[in-house]
Amino acid sequence: MSARIVASVFLAAGILLGTSACGFYAPQATLIQYDPSDGVSGEVGDIAFRNALLLSEDGSTASLLVTAINNGDTAQSVVVQYEAGGQKVTTNVTIRANSTVTIGTKDRPSVLLENIDSAPGDLFPVFLQYGDETGVELLLPVLDGTTGAQYADLLPTPTPTSIPAA
After folding, report:
1. Which of 6, 57, 60, 143 sits at 20 to 30 Å (Cα–Cα) from 29?
2. How far apart are CA 147 and CA 33, in angstroms?
């Protein structure tokens, strides 16, 4: 009788371990990093770039929209570089120490990319770097503002042209 009880206990323990141990081997989905919005992410040294994307109506001029998080103790001048018409175009944006800034929103720094020849729906390469840190090239999605109402008022505004007097 005692052998039957011992066998039952081992069988129950085996079933319990067999059905509950899958948590030890299965990857946890909450630990997998992903971009939960429309843009892409990247990191350069102490600066993290989140939800980076371009907003353009005509595919020629675009506004860069990105949240930059500087985890360092010093302000950094971030180089934003892209290619337009066979030429490299460079713009600098300063990110204060221990701060977060969203570039491309109202009352914030903005970066306007011109002559990009990249229609909404395309991916456009933009290089980000600062100081002596190794930079990162991100393939930014180009959106036209119809993707969501949150982007409609962030599209680049056309530069007014003067009309000669008659």
Report:
1. 143
2. 23
**How far does the chain reach from its first CA to its final CA, in angstroms?**
112
Tokens of 91: 């713009």
Report residue 35 as tokens.
């971009």
AA identity, residue 102 = T
Looking at the predicted structure, is the pLDDT value of residue 38 above 60?
A: yes
Handedness of CA 95, 101, 104, 105 (dihedral sign): negative
The enclosing H or E element of 89 equals strand 87-95
CATH number of the domain at 41, please. 2.60.40.1940
What are the tens digits of pLDDT across the range 102-138?
998 888 878 999 999 898 889 999 999 999 999 999 9
The pLDDT score that the predictor gives to residue 163 is 47
133 domain residue, yes or no: yes
Instruction: Tell me the pTM.
Output: 0.74
- Which residue segment(s) compose the domain that 109 sits in? 37-152
Lowest mean pLDDT among 11-15, 57-61, 105-109, 147-151: 147-151
Structure token digits, residue 160 = 């007014």
Give the residue among 148, 153, 155 at the shortest CA–CA distance from 37.
148
